[in-house]
Amino acid sequence: xxxxxxxxxxxxxxxxxxxxxxxxxxxxxxxxxxxxxxxxxxxxxxxxxxxxxxxxxxxxxxxxxxxxxxxxxxxxxxxxxxxxxxxxxxxxxxxxxxxxxxxxxxxxxxxxxxxxxxxxxxxxxxxxxxxxxxxxxxxxxxxxxxxxxxxxxxxxxxxxxxxxxxxxxxxxxxxxxxxxxxxxxxxxxxxxxxxx
Amino acid sequence: xxxxxxxxxxxxxxxxxxxxxxxxxxxxxxxxxxxxxxxxxxxxxxxxxxxxxxxxxxxxxxxxxxxxxxxxxxxxxxxxxxxxxxxxxxxxxxxxxxxxxxxxxxxxxxxxxxxxxxxxxxxxxxxxxxxxxxxxxxxxxxxxxxxxxxxxxxxxxxxxxxxxxxxxxxxxxxxxxxxxxxxxxxxxxxxxxxxxxxxxxxxxxxxxxxxxxxxxxxxx
Amino acid sequence: xxxxxxxxxxxxxxxxxxxxxxxxxxxxxxxxxxxxxxxxxxxxxxxxxxxxxxxxxxxxxxxxxxxxxxxxxxxxxxxxxxxxxxxxxxxxxxxxxxxxxxxxxxxxxxxxxxxxxxxxxxxxxxxxxxxxxxxxxxxxxxxxxxxxxxxxxxxxxxxxxxxxxxxxxxxxxxxxxxxxxxxxxxxxxxxxxxxxxxxxxxxxxxxxxxxxxxxxxxxxxxxxxxxxxxxxxxxxxxxxxxxxxxxxxxxxxxxxxxxxxxxxxxxxxxxxxxxxxxxxxxxxxxx
Lengths: 196, 220, 287
Ligand code: SF4
Prior knowledge:
The complex is a heterotrimer. Chain A is an alpha/beta fold. Chain A is 32% helix and 21% strand. Chain A has a single domain (37-195), classed as NagB/RpiA/CoA transferase-like (Rossmann fold, 3-Layer(aba) Sandwich), CATH 3.40.50. Chain A has a six-stranded parallel sheet, with helices on both faces. A four-stranded mixed sheet of chain A has the order 8-5-6-9. The longest helix of chain A has 14 residues, at 38-51. At the A-C interface, helix 1, helix 5, helix 7 and strand 9 of A face helix 1, helix 2, strand 1, helix 6 and strand 8 of C. The structure holds iron/sulfur cluster (SF4). Iron/sulfur cluster (SF4) binds at residues 76, 195-201, 213-215, 217 of chain C.
């Protein structure tokens, strides 16, 4: 609802005309940490992420990741996002892991019995220990935020320095997703991040 | 020639913690000043200014200008009231207001910068923590010369509460941190903060006292 | 190179442009933008909506709205304090959250706090003052650290999309004027709206370090800057009476004596001494 009267008073207050272009906005000063080595990033991330109650598992192969998920499941049901990456790692084929829901009803039903949600992330921010998550048809929020235990599986290359770096690389990426969540800490859930 | 100072005790100290002003008068006398108190004085106007009423604050400021006309140095135990007079009086316009603004001094600054003393011959044999005031370091320098005084560190003063405008009590966590520091006294330079601390200590029965810097400097 | 202060200053001086851009971007993705004059209008609008849907609302909705969106003046002068946060109503069907920032270019709303559980609410309302805009997503890198602390952060760009099974079916962004336009009109006061509500100036400074406002607002002068926008009683009889008393030392002394004898514990300060300074001074015969 464009509110003409309000905009009139607003423009009058600012002394601006209709459709008047703004001056160039000043550039934000981004703190880019591209000099950090992969190892430094990992250390930073570990400190911040585990400091806020997250569990971090660094593994060297998809096989290790699968067996770790088996341990975490301990016989319990899990539901997983239908992401190519999770399929690649063979996680969608594990026993007791359901995925590939074709409608909301099926997902809801599966969510009732499952205790674990398995997802992946857009990237990780080392400095703040943040996991950047995005909802999509393949990864609905009911898997990512609905269950007591969340397992996030990601390759190590997703580890960025900080938000500044993410926004510098891809300034428009947030706009193309309906929801982006910067998950800082466990927020009272059991969160396991498996880095391969 | 005798040196003169006029006390501006502030309404809060006058009514609620008179010992701070009496102590201030003692210390100033001890370092060689003739101390006067002009009983016409009331408030600098900060309380209503902080609540957002500039009109009455200015009226109070103008009244101060009358009260302290020709008084020489005006010394006050409140950092905040000193700042109010120094910063807000010139905004009122007029030479008299600006002139008074220039001779109002906060107690610790007056001692260090005008009287140029740091050792006032005080003795105070207790462990204390000191609540700094923004941008002033005179308090620490004066305390450093007090015999027997042990200054303990307390880096985190978050939760010290506030008084006018948005009143807010001292956080219990701060009381605990002070108690854990091992200090028997908190020393400060801002009467309102000290009052809030006193209130919090009394309520939680922690056996700690909050004293104005002047009270410590006056003790022997 | 810039600081948060210059970015905020730029936004405020071009606010109409950025609001228009924000609205275009948000509506392109199915969000709805509504402009409202005051928090009361926000509460009215929510009540209307709830009545339509048959949702029950809490009795203190208005107070809750004031907490979600205290105007800048109210916030800086110590009114309701919880800028930020969210409210879940009608058994989780409706979530009302206050925006930390609005990002014009991305058409995004930035909320601070844990993400909604599971599929989330059916309807999401985001309340924000019209001043909360930032030009681009990149600005978030600089501005988010001023607010977020330990909490999680969400960016929303619209309601549920085709092919998605969860997320709100409707996203409303309520942009509230709440007395900001008169502040914008006065260049001396405009900059108060740079405030991002980090709250730094509202807590007492830690040991020795003066509070520095991240967007360069003259903190000491806030009451002065906001004076005219205050509720009318600041020019009311209480203040006039105060001014009257303070220019009459005898009346002042009497009032002080009254104050001390009717001391109440809730004031949070210790019981006052029996005698004021001036009484003691006089009785000791000093000049
Ligand atoms: S410090 Fe500045 S930005 Fe933060 S709340 Fe205070 S005025 Fe607003």
